[in-house]
Amino acid sequence: MKKKLHILFLCGWYPSRVLPTNGDFIKRHAEAVALKHKVSVIHITTDNNSVKDIEIVSKKNAYIDVYIAYLKPQKNPVIKIYLFWKAYKIILTKVIDFDVIHLNEIYPFGILAKLTSKKYQKPYIISEHFTGYLKASNFKIPFFQKFISKYIVKKAFAICNVSDILSDNIKKIGFKGNFLTVPNVVDTNLFIPKKKENTFLKLVHVSSLKDDHKNISGMLRVAKLLDNTLDYFEWKFIGGDGLEFKDLIKGLNIKKGKISFLEHQTQEKLVTNLQEASICISFSNYETFGIVIPEAIASGTPVIATNTGIAAQLELFDFCKVISIKNEDVLFHEILNYKNTFINLNAEKMHTFVKQEFSKEVISTKFSFLYYQSLKK
Length: 377
Known about the structure:
single chain; 14 helices
């Protein structure tokens, strides 16, 4: 039996009192690693309500120690960097005898990872999720950030992107390193199939509802086409109140279908909506992963998704129909034809597939292998 390791998770994103759901995918990675190892999480963020320059809050259990530093807002960037560095050094004194650094977000936390790696002679690996590396996002990476990031990636034992698409896009920017794909985690004990009621068409979409990213307006226009064709259907948009789409919905004048917007939901509530849906729709313009896709599949619900993120790796499977980006006519016809597309699906096999590819146990094993390999180098 191999030695249990102590992994230092350096996180640019992580759920906190400022943003309770920010980086929940990283939290799930930490929980997966904690099945086999001790994990210490460090996250530093600005809190507009902070009175102290630095406030450190820790939360510990048997497997994960979480340290979050809240910084008072600063107008002077030099002071901000100083407080950031000071907070990091304070927390680091509390994290004793770690074996491997697991960096989440290349920049700017990668600077801390590289400095810490050099000082303590510990290897580091990277998990990356950032959509800004995708060409389709039109995000312009500043020269200094790109220069530093290339060095951080090159010196890492491995850079583990959550999808092949993200790896390909980062390589095209000119980054060189040991590229691997380690996907996000799906809680396969929670997202399980449930027998569906064959009544009317029930569609569900789950995301941040940012239109330039998720193409909500395109889906609403498709809803109008469905409204002209079907006697009744429901389409739930989960992730916000949808107020920015109020005028568009009014103009579309959808009469027979029911469109509803629901605020962000806990995973426990989300699973019910996925289980009850006829289809889960992802119509994104770009994605690094798209966690709701395997969550829906694990719940026994087929997916229609654009050729983005993890969907691009699932197009050969009968439970995921992959379509071109921004093609509203194709989405409309695929929804109408879903009973033929997804005929004779086996919900239990769908769940088993996700369990074998995205469960905590599988992801934990993949990271463990990399940790042990990095220590041999």
